[in-house]
Amino acid sequence: MMLKKVIQNNPQGIVFRALEFTKKTHVGQTRKTGEPYYIHLEAVAETLLEWNMDEACIVAGLLHDVLEDTETTYEMLKKEFSIEVADLVNQVTKFGIVKYRGVEAQAELLRKMMLSLAKDVRVVLIKFADRLHNMKTLGALPPQKQKRIALETAEIYAPLAYRLGMHRLSGTFEDLAFPFIQPKEYKKLLKAVGQKYGEREAYLERVKPVLYEALAKNNIEAVDITFRAKRLFSLYKKLYKYDMDLDRIYDLVAFRIVVKNIEDCYAVLGIVHSLWKPLPGRIKDYIAMAKPNGYQSLHTTVFCLDNKITEFQIRTDNMHTQAENGIAAHWLYKTQPNRRQDINELIKESEWVSRVKEFNENEKAENFIEILKTDSFLNRIYVVTPQGEVRDLPYGSTPIDFAYRIHSDLGNEAVRARVNGKIVPLNYCLESGDIVEIMRQKGKLPSEDWLLFIKTHSAKDHIRQTLNKKGKRLKNRVRG
Ligand code: MN
């Protein structure tokens, strides 16, 4: 729909020319669904428009398959469009060539993603839009292929989108992959949840007027009050943690209140708490302390009407866009070229990207994939340094993991840890919100026993490296 508008506004513009070009070059080709090929290209361009991408990116989206599937060459794209467009298409095409199978192929794909991220975010976003449409039409492929593509989507694309703050896309990737990966579980859950969703929504519909009235009394204008049904796959993951008991999932359908500014967010939180008693330990202030992927919101869970436990998420309009589209939301500032540079810098410097990039080509592919799975696919906790900086760690992390996350020297020299002001054992299981302080002793070596309880791979690697180095040095000294 948006594509049509863009072309209407500029009938002979570059977007129009790209659409004509791609239709002509792909002529006669069809998708597995039987549709003409350009339907796919239009869908990709629509998605990129939804994410507010710039013109070169939209054009590259329309052309993203011409180098692979037609006689078109890089030089032709450069001449016909621009070097920027030709480069984008060229980089997207490089993803298509996967040398390996299985785990190695996944690792290779991930490496390519990382390298592209560091160069130009738009390449990965085109790849995301491409995969999104491919997942929506996955039913048309043979079953063997379906499963492989669905797994790749859930294990590589979804976590990566999450890391870039694209929550909506990440959830969509998982939900589209779920029925192909675990068809039985999917059907079972769909059946169990169907009725519950309905009940919850009818209930929230009753809460809504109470909420509106209270806000009006306090002169707060809500931009929007909606409910958000929990994503099916994310629900499935959570149910595993709660013995598959649906009644213990409080955010099955949650309220989402969007207001104009940050002051109003806190005011609304106060109003909700004055109406209904909050559940202890469930108030989360991601405004004062954003999640590392940029997510901001206030969360609280209260004993709502009829004493039903209900989750509320409160945020501003800006935060809402950011939460839905993450890194893509930054492209709203596309009129400011400097900002674009910032985003690329931001990604380049991101801790996670650099950690994945640290893995060199010779590293075993299994390790590489493990990192992605354990460090980002499962739940993460958010802990705080004494200076108030947030660090994210995998669920089950200990003060030693935290210390290594701050700095490898701090990890090596850690002797004691204080959590929320109290001394705890070094194998203490950290929780979100914990303030962690590490006490060190200069020149101390890490203990091999730590390997038995720590969670993060980077900490394990550092400990092994340090101990190996020390071992070598000792031997040298004996010899010398
Ligand atoms: Mn494609």
UniProtKB/TrEMBL annotation:
One GO CC term on file: plasma membrane
Chain segments annotated as coiled-coil in the UniProt record: none
The HD domain, residue ranges: 37-135
Annotated ranges, domain TGS: 379-440
Pathway recorded for this protein: Purine metabolism
Pfam families: HD_4 (PF13328), RelA_SpoT (PF04607), TGS (PF02824)
Any GO BP annotation: guanosine tetraphosphate metabolic process
InterPro entries for this protein: Beta-grasp_dom_sf (IPR012675), HD/PDEase_dom (IPR003607), HD_domain (IPR006674), NT_sf (IPR043519), RelA/Spo_fam (IPR004811), RelA_SpoT (IPR007685), TGS (IPR004095), TGS-like (IPR012676)
PROSITE patterns from the UniProt entry: HD, TGS
Primary role: In eubacteria ppGpp (guanosine 3'-diphosphate 5'-diphosphate) is a mediator of the stringent response that coordinates a variety of cellular activities in response to changes in nutritional abundance.
Family that this chain belongs to: Belongs to the relA/spoT family.
Record protein name field: (P)ppGpp synthetase
Natural source organism: Candidatus Liptonbacteria bacterium CG11_big_fil_rev_8_21_14_0_20_35_14
Lineage: Bacteria, Candidatus Liptoniibacteriota
